[in-house]
Specification:
globular
């Protein structure tokens, strides 16, 4: 695999990781930030956004993304990058007590 070929599994990891909190919020019936409706996006919009992210992740890597250890590491790095960004975003935007 060339260095450019790691971009697809990395992006897939980011998108798959982004699908998780939106699916959780949709299942809980709460509101959460989406690009489509902003901070007050309801559970239906979050469910749709989660599905879009998951579909895009699958489209980038196919149904079986395990195409060797390097591709798996790139996928994991993408998911970890998203997790760090999401945590930093939550810390930055949550009001302090």
């Amino acid at each position: 695999m060339t260095n450019r070929s790691y971009l697809r599994p990395f992006a897939s990891g980011v998108l798959a990781a982004n699908a998780i909190p939106h699916a959780y919020v949709a299942a809980m019936g709460a509101t959460y930030l989406t690009p489509r409706r902003g901070r007050d996006s309801g559970s239906t919009i979050n469910a749709l956004w989660s599905a879009v992210n998951l579909a895009a992740a699958l489209a980038l890597t196919g149904p079986c993304p395990a195409k060797g250890p390097r591709a798996r590491r790139a996928f994991t790095a993408g998911a970890a990058t998203f997790a760090v960004w999401a945590l930093a975003w939550e810390w930055r935007t949550k009001p302090r007590d």
